[in-house]
Putative YigZ family protein
Amino acid sequence: MTDRYLSVAAAGLHEIEIRRSRFLCAVAPVEQEAAAREAIAARRRAEPAARHHCHAFVLGPDGRTQRSSDDGEPAGTAGVPMLEVLRRRELTDTVAVVSRHFGGVLLGAGGLIRAYGQAVSETVDVAGVVEYRRLRLFDIEVDYTRAGRLENDLRASAYAVRETRFEAEAHFEVGVLPGEEPRFTAWLAEATGGSAEAVELGEDWVRG
């Protein structure tokens, strides 16, 4: 079981032009195949004049689900090279769609492979990459007199602050690496003079 994975940080859109053909690539973070399919359909609606809407996506922390389509381009010249970029960049929970507007010049198999791969690679650079880690989550409750300093200490530490809430007391949802729980609770007690209450929430994927 993996304890971390990479995904695109945000949706991104980028265009390259090769021998008068325009390749518009969109990438987006997705967690379910239905969301990936909807992203592909959205690009078809956004670029109705494009001749091809080729796609690739990888899903799951372990990258187990992998799909691609040439959408009418010669077999193996579009979807597979797009998928290879996602694999090479070790990205998952990511969909890439390239809409091609044909410019009248045939690129050949090699040219298409390079063009589709380049479009995805450059668009990933535009969107950025973020790491997700499997962490143990704690809800930390502390009174307001200590909340400001604790928040500063948390953000300066190795622990991940996932969420803050201000109710009757201040709450911080904090992610801790599995196995580091005793060290974290000792750190928290020292940082707050033993005044904070920590409730374990379970395990989840935390960004950053």
